[in-house]
Amino acid sequence: MPTTKPSELRKLSVAELQKRIQDTKKELMELRFQASIGQLDKNHRVSEARREIARMMTVLGEKVKAQAPRAKKA
């Protein structure tokens, strides 16, 4: 999976982001398994997947924070 720019991620809905995060976490688990048994050819894919997850979680956090009602000061 090629890396996705944050501007492209911001266009996705919260549900789509959560689905992509879940899929990328599954991919990361498979990559780690392959690395542990010595079958992983592209070692850099592990760090790319981690960064991709972090990128998506950051955008998801921005969206959730923007949707939350602001607390009024007393």
TrEMBL record:
Domain of life of the organism encoding this protein: Bacteria
Transmembrane segments: none
An annotated Gene Ontology molecular function: structural constituent of ribosome
Pfam families per the UniProt record, alphabetical: Ribosomal_L29
Family annotation (SUPFAM superfamilies): Ribosomal protein L29 (L29p) (SSF46561)
Entry keyword annotation includes Ribosomal protein: yes
Keywords tagged on the record: Ribonucleoprotein, Ribosomal protein
GO CC term, one of those recorded: cytosolic large ribosomal subunit
One GO BP: translation
InterPro entries linked to this entry: Ribosomal_protein_uL29, Ribosomal_uL29, Ribosomal_uL29_CS, Ribosomal_uL29_sf
Similarity field: Belongs to the universal ribosomal protein uL29 family.
Matches recorded under HAMAP family: Ribosomal_uL29
Designated name of the protein: Large ribosomal subunit protein uL29
Organism: Meiothermus ruber (strain ATCC 35948 / DSM 1279 / VKM B-1258 / 21) (Thermus ruber)
